[in-house]
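Human: I wish I could look at a protein chain and see how it folds. This is the protein in question:
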Amino acid sequence: MLQDVADLNLSDPYGKVGVPKQLVIKKDSSAIPGAVNKAGLRLPIVAKPLVAKSHELSLAYDEFSLQKLEPPLVLQEFINHGGVLFKVYIVGEAIKVVRRFSLPDVSKRELSKNAGVYRFPRVSCAAASADEADLDPCVAELPPRPLLERLARELRRRLGLRLFNLDIIREHGTQDHYYVIDINYFPGYGKMPEYEHIFTDFLLSLAQSK
């Protein structure tokens, strides 16, 4: 599904939306360093289970540690984003955005001093909301509404989905460069504000269109 975002190559006056460089590894962990170099992925690298049996993420700091990862998995270039992601819920035509704490930024100094694989609970599933936190305005500012509406409209058409959500980050140090790092179809909506009213309106509109 992330490939559809990459193919979309969305860019307009409100911003640019892409996906981080990524690579699917189905087997043979010993071949990961070579595959990463060939694909041009830069360290650190986020590793996600290809089969969603676990909500755990791993962050690999050095090339040698890549061999410790357990396929099948998706490798994704880590992009500094101020430690905040935007979870965008889409229910039919409705869009709701909430802030969530994410993995912290990794400086060049930290990258040179650290080694190994660090494991984290899946940040997009974390209960900790960042909506009430005292954040730097440059980090906290939500993506522009028109940009999200266009992205949601295009993905509804390309994916054939009406119920899904997106995890979006803004590259730290930029005002308008966004990346979609995850897409979930028919996600849980319990933590989406006003979900009862939005979901009821969606179901009613489906019934009325029949």
Remarks:
- The radius of gyration is 18 Å.
- The longest helix spans residues 145-159.
